């Protein structure tokens, strides 16, 4: 008889938190290059509910019913015949890539190629918070903005919008490792927190200067890691240095139009939409930073799996400070 697990799924597009169903389904079996883990924690990213809304149709989800949740951490239970790095009992951090094995379940299947070991110094919550948000911040800064995190590159001025959110909190800390000058935007209640993460200047996005993204010290930004929504190019443009670049982690249709126009007109100032390509080397680098106390994780809230819809609603609400964690 097949062993069953508790999984949270939705069966069609739309419906928000109330469309999440608690089902008993068979525990998945890992393929040759995969690992089965007992999930200890997952985190909710805006990506998860945007897929549910149909914002990435027809590409995602690949089929219904769908178990959401990309970030996972847990204990290896079984490994595929081709897996060499991991064995049962190992603790790991990863991203789910199989179409129907998301993190909102008691067990999940993950690919060895995007999986990193989780040392005992890192809690399950910290591990689950890291993959999507940490890798997005890392990729935005290093690959898109050309910033060297060892501090060896030229000194740059960086703006990070929505700096108290999941990606923003990591972007601030990583940018400071790179010896950049960091200006950050957030709401009034999170200004002290964002300063504690290392930001040199923090501006309240609800003030006139904050809405205009003006640096209090009059700096022009060489790079913007844009983690907020609804800021037009016309607001960024006057604040950018000659070759300033806006890296948009959640590009809207109008942002994609701006990107195309800037390319067509050979503008020195650019807006670049970010498409996350997970690299295990980068994930291992981030895990190492957390282990050594150089990268902190701000956790907004934790929910049990049987209250996953509450975590979903909290993420959709858009005012989480740091990461939202779900634990089976």
From TrEMBL:
This is Putative quinone-oxidoreductase-like protein, chloroplastic. Residues 15-326 form the Enoyl reductase (ER) domain. It comes from the Eukaryota. GO terms for molecular function: oxidoreductase activity. PANTHER family: ZINC-TYPE ALCOHOL DEHYDROGENASE-LIKE PROTEIN C16A3.02C.
């Amino acid at each position: 008889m097949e062993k069953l697990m508790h999984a949270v799924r939705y069966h069609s597009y739309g419906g928000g938190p109330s469309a999440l169903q608690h089902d008993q389904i068979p525990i998945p079996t890992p393929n040759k290059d995969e690992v089965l883990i007992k999930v200890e924690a997952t985190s909710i990213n805006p990506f998860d509910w945007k897929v549910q809304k149909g914002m990435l149709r027809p590409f995602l989800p690949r089929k219904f019913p769908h178990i959401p949740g990309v970030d996972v951490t847990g204990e290896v239970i079984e490994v595929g015949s081709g897996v060499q790095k991991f064995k049962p009992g190992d603790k790991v951090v990863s991203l789910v890539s199989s179409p129907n094995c998301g993190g909102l379940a008691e067990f999940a299947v993950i690919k060895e190629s995007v999986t990193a070991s989780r040392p005992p110094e890192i809690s399950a919550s910290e591990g689950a918070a890291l993959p999507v948000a940490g890798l997005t911040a890392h990729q935005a800064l290093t690959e898109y903005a050309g910033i060297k995190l060892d501090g060896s590159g030229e000194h740059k001025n960086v703006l990070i919008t929505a700096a108290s959110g999941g990606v923003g909190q990591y972007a601030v800390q990583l940018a400071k490792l790179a010896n950049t000058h960091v200006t950050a935007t957030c709401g009034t209640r999170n200004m002290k927190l964002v300063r504690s993460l290392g930001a040199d200047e923090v501006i309240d996005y609800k003030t006139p200067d904050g809405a205009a993204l003006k640096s209090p010290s009059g700096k022009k930004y060489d790079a913007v890691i844009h983690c907020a929504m609804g800021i037009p190019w016309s607001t960024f443009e006057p604040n950018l240095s000659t070759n300033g670049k806006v890296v948009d982690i959640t590009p809207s249709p109008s942002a994609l139009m701006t990107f195309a126009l800037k390319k067509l007109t050979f503008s020195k100032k650019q807006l670049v939409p970010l498409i996350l390509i997970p690299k295990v080397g980068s994930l291992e680098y981030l895990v190492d930073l957390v282990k050594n106390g150089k990268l902190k994780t701000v956790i907004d809230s934790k929910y049990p799996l049987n209250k996953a819809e509450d975590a979903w609603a909290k993420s959709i609400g858009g005012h989480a400070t740091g990461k939202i964690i779900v634990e089976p």
